[in-house]
Structures are given as structure tokens and as C-alpha cells.
């Protein structure tokens, strides 16, 4: 809502309050003002001139030489290039020495040899938005009404000595979508009295009865609670008076003709949208408000054919044909044209939700629909109707018939709210007195009747539809008293302890481990493309990607089913920017459902994923770069599981999930009381995907965190330091290449029993010396007993059993 | 024999005097003191001496040996010192060359800021509540006093999946879930961080996905002045004790009264600058007293308890804190961007 400071001054005395000061007061009071532009964008010394004659320029076809009376006492000769300038017009004339917006100074000049003593101006040259001017004024110079007085300052004629308050309204304050609503607000803020229009005293009707011309009815009471109409005979369509046009332009509305302008003017003034029908085109003089029927169509005022749907409200005439889309836009078939003589003027309250759905569906948002959507004040429907009727009689030469045609299906009563002093102070922490509260309520012009000490019944006017409970009044009191006046206190009551939950603490720990491991934390969008949602089948548990009903783009049309696709994208993005060794991780949710169409919320699974590519460490002057491999990714996970106390429960098994290199991938399993479950994968990215994303060799992992959260053991228990010496035995065995190191160590542990403290692979050799399908695995075994020194015999016995086991299970040969 | 010994001493000391390197020193040691050296040679003649003379000559022999050894040792030590000095000199490296860096990553700036905010509230006795990002219309809107067709739904055009299920548009549904879980108990004291989604065209200041942190306190006799006190404490712990806050009336369907909260501009300290559009204040929070209908939906009697709630955008706070020019950097995952937030 754009509010003209000058217009507002019609209703309330603003002396001593500059537009900027007013904007500050309103903003601090809860009506935010974005900016306060001046309507005069730099005009000085431009006056109304009368074009006495226009002759062709002797040396230029497109120029004219005008003789202009600008009230200066002597005629001015002005060269003008506008095609629409003609003798007999009143026009804005920038005299020599004038200033125009954009720091233009008007000087005496010669144009193609002819002297020009000033300039005839277009609206744009005056700094006006010409989109807001009537169509015939948008090209060429601005032509003013014939009765404009010669020599008058153009700032006065166009009411440009004004400022606009640009209101950024919250949805609850739709009462301020009207000049009167803003005036009430300013009155409450300043405590100054209001002067409001009273159309009732200007209603001079003829003996002709309205009911003989128009009858109204409401077919669907749920969509219209009040419909009123007046009949105005014998209007003459023409321009609205200049002052009214000026105000419409100031508010950002383009003047059209007197009838349409008056409906818009009253809409701005009262917040009540109005509509004027050409009465001659309303069959039978009958108007019915009803829901549209399947298959009905209506050509709206913008010449678009609209297919109507049963939830849309239409105005239908005596032939039952739609002539308007209620609250949204009129029909072309009942439009007011220059030939129109009789008007049916509509003022009504339509259901906000229905108007909202209609305007959304048709993509038709208008000043009217915006107001209906937020709910107009039923208490002012009739007054707005009368105000517009009075203005039409005054400015369109019409005659009013006697009475109002109306149908009302629901009455509106002002809301009564109980308010107590203790509630106000208890809720705000203030120490206001009864008198202070009473004063604030009276500034708001809310009627408050005391029910004993510190307690009132407050009658809220219908214009404030946002107030229905005591807390709403508490806010009114608080904002008018001033939020700054509310003290600052500490919460009373028992102390509470803040702490992270286990999963929250683990998430932070994961961040710490992985960043210390050299990875950057990424955050990616939770929505992705259908294609990406299908990339890693095993990571998505066969879930169907969940699609947004109305995505903004294909790339962001479904919820992610895994974290890795976006990490691959981020890696590719980094490589394109010469960040050649992306090392990233992300912790976040993926969204799984087995339903085609969701009927319940999907599973949101907390996950962690990581990616490494390129060099582990960048090359430096004293060391070469080293490419990352599978064991970097795995090592990070091992550290994670170790730190979370899961090391003993985790195992890695060769696996071939889609999207991964089939020979370089492990399923990560977790042993739980329910058995062994796969919680994720670690491996090399499949060469196909690597190519698709244009990546170097890339190693990735993704794990499910819920199981990790459940089983992580954060307790630390001290183990006594060894008091007896260990015995170390290294062995090297030759086995088939297919035999995994994990299988060897597991077998060794199973035989080693309590004497075997640890076993570790310290070398793996493949090569000519042992045969191409073989490998040699070197293992370091450490034996120790907690309570005594082991004897050579004891160790040798166990060691021999181990070697025997390896031979039996893997045909392992001890390498000498 | 005594004379021969004395002569040997003189000759040896004279010879040793001029020795300049370790190998010549060794040669002389062998020549005079070795098993086949001159001293041994002379003393071999002791057998021919009388019993009285023998200990005397023996004594002299020892003295000569000791004198020669002392000089040799002294020489040796000085040669060793020189040798060490030479070696250390040769081992000199260029200490100005860079060291072997340990590569460390950074927590994402949004999580870094969120953790900072969480820690402040943990210290104030809050716990952290979380809820689903895919929500029902009921929790996201209806229970928060935003019935269908409520004009305020305009403010946050949403991503629906079905008519009843959508991506949450704010973290506020966690308020309702928390209240229901608390089953009417007080006090409730939580903050709710998380991702939220709104249909917004992405530009330098808008992102369709962003992060919020919301707070909710419910207790008997909770006041708006407590809300002001809480926010002031938070802002001062976050930005410093010189910071002030300013509340402006505003509107949220789920709070009444409602307010926007400005803080002293972090850039200019309230003097007025480009960042605060020369007002000295920056808007960072929305807040208010929990609307009675919301309390009812959460299972509380608005006549028995009151509540306050507040919410802030993590991106906005991070943009201001680090003076970042474009919100899209947060989701680009450029390691040159992410790496900048590794400092403690």
C-alpha cells in the first residue's frame, strides 16, 4: 500500500510531523515503512502554459514552433518535437531557468535556427512513471485539463509536493490497505483526532426506486455474506477530476475514466473493492452471486477467456450468464464503455479463501483480490457503496435512485473481548496502570467498559478483524505503550540443565574426526534430479524417490535418496575450479519411502558420506604428491568407528553395489544383538560414474548413522598396562591371491586365543618369485600373558597351531 | 735408561706440538706408546736393572707415558671439537622453507555458527530438539495457527509433496512436536535447529533451502520481559557485551504479541554504515509470546502457562558474521570457500 502523505492529511492533522518522522513512528508501532520517496523528483519553475498556436519549423519537418502563454506577461516561443502538441492545449512548460528531474537545466536555445524560450514537457520529463498515466498521455507531451489555470505551478496542478509512505504490511494488518485504516493507526499513534468522510449526508436520490432497476440475490451464502448495489442513471463517461487522478497515480493506480477511477479511489479510501457494471448489459437488472458451474466460461476485462471452476464465485445476470468473477475481475460483457449511461455499482464481502484460490489459479492478482483475500470489513461495505455513489453523482453527472439493493446472509457484530490489567502486566512483565491501558484503548477508538477494578469488556470495531482474543489486545497495548518500555528480566523458576543428546554429541564428534582427517564439511541441497536419486541402488534400499508436486526445476524435483550424488557433483565443481584434491564429507538426511504416493511421512535417515580424490597430500618442495586410494577412505572410517567404540563390531566384506568399483568396494557391517546388518559401503567410484562426473579416481563411502548412534559406546575403561614382556613372531605365508588379509587375521585370532595379543599385516607381496596367482602376506604376531612371562614352549605350541590352521584353511605355505 | 726416557719425552712432546690432524696424532701415539712403540722398547731393558733401580725407572717410565698421553688426549679432543663443528656446519638447512603441513578440514560455516548458537543456549539450560524436514500440513501450518487459506501462508510459499505433506517451511513444527512429547510438563526449554524450504528463486540473498534455529520456552508466568532478557543475553554472548537489542511490533501467526528483533550493527557498532543501511541496527530475529491456540494444539492450557518463541536464520547470521556477499556460496561446496572457516 502506497500512502500519499497529503491525502492522509485530509483525515488527520499531520502538522509538525514530517513524512520521515511519521514513517519512523509507524515502523516502531508495527506498520513497517520501507521508504518515503518524494513525488517531486527535482522539478522547479515548471508552470501551466496555453498553446496559442503551432506552426511547422521552417527547417525541420518533425519540429513545431509553438507560441505559448505561460502567464509570464509575454508570449513564449517554444520549439517542440512532440507529435501531439496542438493549439488550444494546456501543457506543462519549463521556463528558461527551470529545473527538471535528472539535473536538467532549461536554457534559452536555438533549435535549427529558431529560438526556443523553454520546453513543453512530457510526463516522463517531469519524473513521473508514465505507465501510471492514461494511455493517451503516455506518448508525447502531457496534456492538462482545459480548465487548468495558466501560470499555475505544475507541482500544485499534479500535487507533486508530496511524499509516499510505502507500507510493507504484515498479513494481519489488512485494515491498513485503506487510507482510513492508516488514518486510524496514525490517530492511535499520535493521539490526534480524525476527520472522516460522511457520505450519508450527501446522498440525494431521485424518487426513482433502485428496486425497479436492480435486484440482487445470493445463491451460495457461504461465499458471500453481504452484497449491496446502487443504481446511477445518466452518467457521462469522461476523465476523473485532476485531483482524483493525482491521488490514484500517487497510490500507483492508472486513471482510466471517472467511473472506474471512483471505484478505485473509494477502494483506496475504504479498503473496499467496488465494481461498476454497465446496467444496460445486465440482463433483467438481476444479479445473483453463486458458484460457477462446470463448463462455464467468461471473457474477463483483459479479454482473456477463462474456464470457470465450481469453486469460483461468479456474478450472474437475469439470463443466468456470468458477467463477472467476484472479487477478481469483471466480465467484458458488462464492461463500462464511453457509451455507458446507467451504472450498477457493486459493494460486497466475498469469501477470502474462495477469492484467493480463484486469483491464484487464474494467475490474476489485483488490488481488489488482494483485499478480499485478506478479508474486507463488512461493517463498511454500505458506507463505501454510498461514498462511491456520491462521487459518481458529483463527478460523472449521474443521478442516484432511491435505496440500496442488497442481500445479506450473515450479519457482522463487533467482537467483544475481556481484558484485565493483570493479564496485560503478567504477560508483558510491565507495571501499567488501569488509566494507561484505558488511554491506549481510547486512542485506538476501542470502546472499553469496566467490569470492576482493572478489568474491561472491550468492543473491537469490525475494521480490526485481526483482534479476537485478549492476547491481541495485549499486543495493541504493548505496541502503543512501546516495546522499548517493556523491561528486561530473567526467567524465574527452577534451573534447567542443557546437554547434547547422544546422537547430537556423536554428530559433532564425527565433524571433528573428519575435519581433523583433512576433509571439508559440505552441505548440499536435499532435493535433486530423478536421475541422481537412482544412482546408488544399494544405498537407497529400493526406496522410491519422493517427488515434489511443483518443483522449480528438473534438477531439484525429488528428495535425495543418498548423499553421494551431491558429493560427486561438488567434487566435479571443485575440479572445474582447479581445486584438484577434493576431500569432502557431509552429514545429513536422506528420505526414503516405499509408497508411490505418500500417505504418511517418509523415513528420514541420518547419514554420513565422504569423498576423496586426487592427492592425499599436495606435492611440496620436499615431497611428492601421493594419490589417495581405497585405504584412505577406509582409514577415515576406521578412525571414526574406533573413536565411537564400535571397532570390534564393524567388519568389511567385499561387495559389488551398483555405482562402485566391483573389485574395490567393501560392505560395512555392524554386529548387533539382532545379527549383522550392513550399514554402508566404502569403495572406489565405478569408472562409468567417474567418467559421467568427469572425475579422477575417486574413493567414497556412505554410512547409515542411526545404527551408529544406537551402538556407539562412549565409555572409556582403563586397561592395566602390561607388566610382563611380549613375544613377537613374524611370519610370511604364500596364499592364493583371492584369500583376503581379513580372513587370515581372523583365522589367526580364532586359534590364537587369549595368548595372542595382536596380529597385523605388515606387508603384502605379489610378483614373479611366488607365481602369478599367489601372494605373500607378512604378519606380525604378538603374544603376551597378563599375569606371567610366557615360555618359549607355550608360544611355539600356539604358533604351530596357527600355522596348521592357515595351511588347512587357505593352503598357506610358510615362506622361509 | 733414565736419560733415554727423558729424551723420549722431549722428542715426543716436541713432535706432538706440531701435529695438525687426527691421523698424524694416531701415528705418533702408535710410534711412542704402541705395543711396539719406543716407550715399550726402552722399558723392555728394565730386566737388566737392579732391584733398587727398577721401581724408580718404572716410575719415570709411567710419568713419561702419562705426559705423552695427556698431550695426545688434549690434541684429540680439540680435533673432535673441530670435526663436530665442521659437520654441524655442513648440516645447515634453509629454515625459511615451508614445513610439512598437516591437512585439516573445516566444519561448514553454517554448522559452525549453529553450534556456536547451540552452545550459548546449552549454557542457558536449553536442550536441542529436532524434527522431520518432511512434515504434515497439520504440524507445519494448522497447529501453528495457520489454517488452510490463511493469508499468512502467502508469506512462505511451500514445496508440497501431497496435499497433506510438504517440506517444512520453518522449524516451528518442532515446537508442536516438543510440546506434545512433553505431555503438559513445564518448563519446556528447547532450541530447534534445522533445514527449512521455501519456494524462492535463488539469488545473492535468497535460497530455497536454508537453516533456522528456533527457541521455545513454556512455563507458568513467563513474560515478554523474560523474552527480552533472554534475547539480550544471547546477543551479548554471541556478539559481545556492548550489544543492544530493539524490538519492533510485527506479526507471526503463532505468536501474539510478536516482534522483530534488531541488534546493534555488528559492522559499525551502531554508528551507521552500509551494512545496516545507516540505521545502526540489523534485524536478525523474529519472536513473540506463543499464541494461545498454539499452546492448545501442543496440549497446554493457555490460562495456566505462557510461552515465548524466537527464531533466526543461520545463513543471515553467518553472512553478517563473516561478511559473505552471496548466500549461494554456502551450498557450492567450493573447498576454497569451506577451507576459510577452519579457524577455531
TrEMBL record, chain A:
Residues the record lists as binding Mg(2+):
466, 472, 475-476
Known Gene3D superfamilies for this protein?
3.30.56.10, Bira Bifunctional Protein, Domain 2 (3.30.930.10), Ferrodoxin-fold anticodon-binding domain (3.30.70.380), Nucleic acid-binding proteins (2.40.50.140), Phenylalanyl-trna Synthetase, Chain B, domain 3 (3.50.40.10)
**Keywords, sorted A to Z:** Aminoacyl-tRNA synthetase, ATP-binding, Cytoplasm, Ligase, Magnesium, Metal-binding, Nucleotide-binding, Protein biosynthesis, RNA-binding, tRNA-binding
Q: SUPFAM superfamilies attached here?
A: Anticodon-binding domain of PheRS, Class II aaRS and biotin synthetases, Nucleic acid-binding proteins, PheT/TilS domain, Putative DNA-binding domain
FDX-ACB domain: residues covered: 722-815
Q: Where in the cell is it found?
A: Cytoplasm
User: What positions does the domain TRNA-binding occupy?
Assistant: 40-155
State which Enzyme Commission number(s) the record gives. Answer: 6.1.1.20
Q: Which residues form the B5 domain?
A: 412-488
Quaternary structure and partners? Tetramer of two alpha and two beta subunits.
Q: Which NCBIfam families match?
A: pheT_bact (TIGR00472), YtpR (NF045760)
Q: Which family does it belong to?
A: Belongs to the phenylalanyl-tRNA synthetase beta subunit family. Type 1 subfamily.
Question: What protein name does the entry list?
Answer: Phenylalanine--tRNA ligase beta subunit
Q: Gene encoding this chain? A: pheT
TrEMBL record, chain B:
Entry annotated with the keyword Ribonucleoprotein: no
Q: What is its EC number?
A: 6.1.1.20
Q: Identify the keywords attached in UniProt to this record, alphabetized.
A: Aminoacyl-tRNA synthetase, ATP-binding, Cytoplasm, Ligase, Magnesium, Metal-binding, Nucleotide-binding, Protein biosynthesis
Cofactor binding mode and count: Binds 2 magnesium ions per tetramer.
Pfam families in alphabetical order: Phe_tRNA-synt_N (PF02912), tRNA-synt_2d (PF01409)
Q: Which reaction is this enzyme known to catalyze?
A: tRNA(Phe) + L-phenylalanine + ATP = L-phenylalanyl-tRNA(Phe) + AMP + diphosphate + H(+)
Q: What is its main location?
A: cytoplasm
CDD domains per the UniProt record, alphabetical? PheRS_alpha_core
Q: Where does Mg(2+) bind?
A: 256
Cofactor(s) for this protein?
Mg(2+)
**InterPro entries per record:** aa-tRNA-synth_II (IPR006195), aa-tRNA-synth_II/BPL/LPL (IPR045864), Phe-tRNA-synth_IIc_asu (IPR004529), Phe-tRNA_ligase_II_N (IPR004188), Phe_tRNA_ligase_alpha1_bac (IPR022911), Phenylalanyl-tRNA_Synthase (IPR002319), tRNA-bd_arm (IPR010978)
One molecular function GO term is: phenylalanine-tRNA ligase activity
Family annotation (HAMAP family): Phe_tRNA_synth_alpha1 (MF_00281)
What's the subunit arrangement here? Answer: Tetramer of two alpha and two beta subunits.
- UniProt family annotation: Belongs to the class-II aminoacyl-tRNA synthetase family. Phe-tRNA synthetase alpha subunit type 1 subfamily.
Instruction: Name it.
Output: Phenylalanine--tRNA ligase alpha subunit
